[in-house]
Every structure is written in C-alpha cells, then in structure tokens.
Amino acid sequence: MPAARESLLDAAYTALTRRPWSAVRMVDVAASAGVSRQTLYNEFGSKEGLARALVRRAADGCLAGVERALSGPGDPCERLGATAEWMMSAARENALVRAMLTGCWSERLPSPVLTAVPSSTAGPAQRRADGPLPSPGEFVSLVRDRAVAVLHGSGPLPPADTAELARFCELAVRLALSCVSAPPAEGRVADLLRTALPRRSTA
C-alpha cells in the first residue's frame, strides 16, 4: 500500500524532527499516520527497517534533485553550480541528507548500516530500502558519473576527453560537499566553481 507507506515515512520523519530517533515510538508513528501498528510492521518489519526506508527515501530524493539540477538550463559550470546549490539546500532542510553527504550521524539520528541487509518483507519498496545505502564517497561517484553523462557534448563544450571531464565533475562535487559543511555566502557557489575548474571546462 504505497499511500500508507508514504504516510508512515512522513510521520516518522516529522517525529524525528521533534525528538531523537531513540525516543521515536512505532506506536506513535502509526497513530500519526492514521494506520494500525500492525500495518507499520507489515510495511517495514521493524524500527530498523523503518529507519533504513527513511534514509533511503532521503537519499533518493537528494539524487533526484541532483538529476534535475544537472538537466537544467545553462552551461556546464552553471549546472554544476545549481547542483551544488541543491545539495546545500537539501542538507539544510533534511538532517538525514546532511548526514548522508557528510558521514556525520549524530545521536539524534538513526544510524543505518550502509551495506545490504536481508529484506524484511517481500515488497519491492522494502527490498530497495534494505539494499546498500551510499556512503559520502559513493555519492561523489554517483553524482560525478551522472554529471559526465549529462554534460558530455553539451554547449559550450566541455573537454572531449571523458576522463578529463570526469575529473572536473568530481572536483565540482567535492567542492559542493565542502559547501554543505561550510556554506559560503549566498550565490557564491557558482563563482567558486568557475574559479576552481580549469577554464577549458567552463568556456
């Protein structure tokens, strides 16, 4: 039941913004979502399963935002700048995204295992949630590879050498992650990228 699942994840995240994850009770999450506690356990299997699904949804939402930013208008540097701005915004608004990007999981947050675990239910959504979660280094690789695929051949043209473009994109993503930890002044991300990236990648 996708609607119940999303309602439960929304309720769990709302509860997490108000109290540490250790103090979030399954019965309260179910009541807030307007479903039975049994429905909650049927969907996620356990509190750990709920936590993994919550983090997976945050990760998927962040990657979807990255995809939109990379596919937007502008030259390659502008799109990489938009991607960095999105990552900063997502990290400000969602503590789970910030923890995923930085690897810093506070005591208030669930601490999911990054490697895959046996699926707690037969549902495809939970099987995906129980799959491996990206570490900060893996996130860099995911975004770098997607940026190369989107930006290669775009105009103004980035370098024809895909390996060189991959290095530029990785530099941009790592700069973006540093901005998540230490945000620059508003609107400065694109300027930083244009300064940091070799001229051939942005001209």
Output the keywords.
elongated; Tetracycline Repressor, domain 2; 203 residues
From the 3D structure, determine the CATH topology of the domain at 61-112 and 134-202.
Tetracycline Repressor, domain 2
CATH architecture of the domain at 61-112 and 134-202: Orthogonal Bundle
| CATH class wording of the domain at 61-112 and 134-202 | Mainly Alpha
Report the helical percentage.
55-70%
Mean pLDDT: 84
Shape: elongated
Order of helices and strands: HHHHHHHHHHH
Distance between the termini: 50 Å
What characterizes the major β-sheet?
none
**Helices and strands: which structural class?**
mainly alpha
Structure overview:
- By secondary structure, this protein is an all-alpha fold.
- It has a domain at 61-112 and 134-202: Tetracycline Repressor, domain 2 (Orthogonal Bundle).
- The chain has helices at residues 2-18, 26-33, 37-44, 47-70, 76-93, 95-102, 124-129, 136-151, 162-181, 189-196, 199-202.
- Helix 8 packs across helix 9.
- The protein starts with a helix and ends with a helix.
